[in-house]
Amino acid sequence: MRRSVRRCFEEGGYVYATRAAEIAGRSGIEPVARLASNENPFPPPPVVLDAAILALRGVNRYPPEQQCSLLDALKRHHGDYHFAAGAGMDGVIETVIRVLAEPGERVVVATPTFSFYGVAAGAQGADVVQVKRAADFSVDPDAFTRAMEGAPLGFICSPNNPTGNATPPENIARILEEIDGVLFLDNAYVDFSDLDYRTLMRDHDNLIIGRTMSKIYALAGLRIGYAFLPEWLVGPYGKGATPFAVSTVAAAAAEAALGEREWSEAYLDHVRTWRGRYTHEVGHRVYPSQANFVLVDVAPLRSDEVTEALAARGVVVRSCRSFPDLEDHYIRVSIGDEWENERFISEINRL
Ligand SMILES: *Cc1c(COP(=O)(O)O)cnc(C)c1O
Question: 7-43+261-350, what's its fold?
Answer without folding.
Answer: Aspartate Aminotransferase, domain 1 (3.90.1150)
